[in-house]
Amino acid sequence: MNYFLRFGAYILHPLLMPLIGCVIYFSITPRFIEIDIMRARVFAVAIITLFIPIISFFLLKNLNIVQSIHLIEVKERKYPLMIHCLLILLIIKMVFDPYESPELYYFFVGILFAAVTALILVFLKFKISLHQMGVAGLTMFLIALGVHFKINILGTIALFFIANGWVASSRLHTNSHNYPELIAGFFVGVIPQLILLNFWL
């Protein structure tokens, strides 16, 4: 059980959530999108939200700004979150168009608002669960996609509800977060996606 709970924190890492959201969107959308365009955008999201942050982490670690990938101390989160906000802003400006791909565009706008909120809370010395924030935001996005496209993806949504519980249990088991930090992470992830539904749903 110990390994199972710890594994949840890695397989459901917040850096993976934007990429997973894109892959699911392109898998279920009824819109016609050329396969080359899909691949190019997924590849761009993978580079910007996954590979660049990993390289940035090693740079920050060498500069002794962060001590580990877990970002245990609140102050360690400041620069990684700043970098994350800039990278998400780059995706919004360069990868997705609000007219061609409104669903993904506003999905990333929601991610940006959540990341900025998490950064503001860091300056207030409060550490929310970024894992919970990522999974909860993606779950809300999937619910909205099911309603928007009028398709049955209840199985996928159910899996992500389980994933929310898995992540919460994992973070509590490893003493990475307490209940207020998990609850705050959940709402910081969900509320921006919920508010932005007015622009595309």
What can you see in these coordinates?
The protein has 201 residues and is mainly alpha-helical. It has one domain. The protein is 75% helix and 0% strand. Helix 2 runs parallel beside helix 6 (130-149) and helix 4 (78-94) packs antiparallel against helix 5. The radius of gyration is 16 Å and the shape is globular. The protein starts with a helix and ends with a helix. The mean pLDDT is 91.
Write a compact overview of the structure shown:
The protein is mainly α.
Index terms:
201 residues; mainly alpha; 75% helix; 0% strand; transmembrane; PAP2 superfamily protein; transmembrane helix; membrane
Structural class: mainly alpha
Q: Kindly state the percentage of residues in helix.
A: over 70%
Number of domains: 1
List unreliable stretches of 5+ residues.
Answer: none
CA radius of gyration is: 16 Å
Total of helices: 9
The sequence of SSEs as H and E is: HHHHHHHHH
What value does the average pLDDT take?
Answer: 91
Shape, principal axes of CA atoms:
globular
Distance between the termini: 40 Å
Give the total of beta strands. 0
- Strand content is under 5%
Q: Summarize the biggest pleated sheet.
A: none
Protein name: PAP2 superfamily protein
Organism: Ulvibacter antarcticus
Keywords: Membrane, Transmembrane, Transmembrane helix
